[in-house]
Amino acid sequence: MSWSTHLRSAQDFVTVGDEVDAVILTLDRETRKMSLGIKQITPDPWTDITKKYPVGSSHKGIVRNFTNFGVFVEMEEGIDGLIYISDLSWTKKIKHPSEFTNVGDQLDVVVLELDVEGRKLSLGHKQTTENPWDKFQEEFAVGTKHTASIC
Question: Is the pTM of the predicted complex or chain greater than 0.85?
Fold first, then answer.
């Protein structure tokens, strides 16, 4: 019924008595059954994905779901991407994504990888900012001396 991967009930789309346009997907004369599709009336959002979301491009997305290994972010209806937990922050040790963000939050993301055939979009949040370790490496180069207090 929708290109979105979010599982929803048919009642979210139609009610009894509605008139809808649909595409015939299968037709079985013996069992006298046919399958119809509504989403096929609209264009597949993955059709021009490489133009909309090229690797290295920056975007905003909405946090839709957590797993132990990352955050699923909706870029648009039918296009979700995954930010692995290691790509959330350069400096924070995050055990679970809920420590970093909330469902419904908007996050800045960068497209890291795009698998069109597998319909997978790999995203990063920490890549939207400069890597502080690059600065530390210059400022605190091996062999340099510094004064510090012990906390």
Answer: no
